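Quick start: read one record
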Amino acid sequence: MPISNKNKHPQREHARYLLIIQTCAGFSQWVDILLIFSVPAFLWESTPAQIAFIASCFGLPGLFLGPMIGALLDQLDARRAACCAAVARTALTGFIAFAPGFEFFAALVLLKGVANVFYWPATAILTQQLVAPAARVQYFSSLSALDQVTKVMTPLIAGAATLTMDAQLIFLLSCALTLVCALWLFFLPQSATTHQERGKHLLIDAWKGLSYGWKSIRTLPSGLVVSIGLGIGVSLALAIYDPHLAAFLNSIQLDATAFALLVSSTGFGAVCGALLVRFFGKSAHPSQLMRTGLALFFTATASAAILSGFYAQAIGIVPLMFLWFINGLGYEIFMIGCNVNMQNLCPPHLLGRVSTSARSLQMAAVVAGPLIGAWLISVQSRAMPFGVSAVIALALLWTVMVAPPKHGMPTD
């Protein structure tokens, strides 16, 4: 049904609908991530190398195509671009649900990775247009809470669904969710958004825009540059130790149940962080949220480094659950502040290319982090990745204290 524009506060109404759209999109993404790595293993008995190949198909389009696609999106109507990308995600997910073999499955996952690269920056531009600056902390904290709840629910829902259907067909749930996104985006009034006049040669204009975007990096607000750098740093710190957590737990005689408990503790901490900001910190300055989040993240990471380095064999599951709860709490509070700063500080005509470039750099950190962690373990010990991540977190905390993003809260 069409979205009414007769509300006394149409921008608030549009922001609520965008919250629904993005919650469905995030839920779909979690379903995809769960199934893309599990279905090949169970259905076609794929090797670890094949699973890694699937992961690269899903994630690498953002690394290599992100900036160019972002520059292209800056030339387009964000609502239409997001709607078309949502339709593409829906169609591709439907095909994935019936993929007859691994090769076809991998090709479809690659194409869906490309569709994701169009969808997420397009909706980032849409968010800047629809959500008032003063309401962005409330919006992103609400979105984060809902996203983390769906993240926790996804394995439970997928597990229940396997009782009545083949695991591959659960992709149809993701398909239905992205279809909801496409329909709501289609019915969103065009008057609710703004867009630039499109040129006749979009690819040429996008290439010029990309070149201009790189040249204009020096003119970006310093707070935005700091925020992007901090986000990349936190991604690197997480990626250094997180992929090796299960192996570390195994080395201290803790089983897969302990790993599941830590993952759940992280998710619960993230939900609590989002809810705290939503109900008690929605008027907080983004840089304050970033400082608080990084302080908690550093505390958890440094404590994990100390425990793993000096008391590894004496660690119980309860203190680890507490530390990973604090880790998730701090990370989520930090990311809310970081996302708000991106929306508030980035010039609207550069948001597509800046957001995709930042996402590409974060993806590079996510790819490099596990390799660094593996090297640290090989030359030192299993505790070393935690120590290096703690040092990185301390450097980031020092940075946000010395050079905080000072202008991240414009008013209506």
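The longest helix spans residues 10-43.
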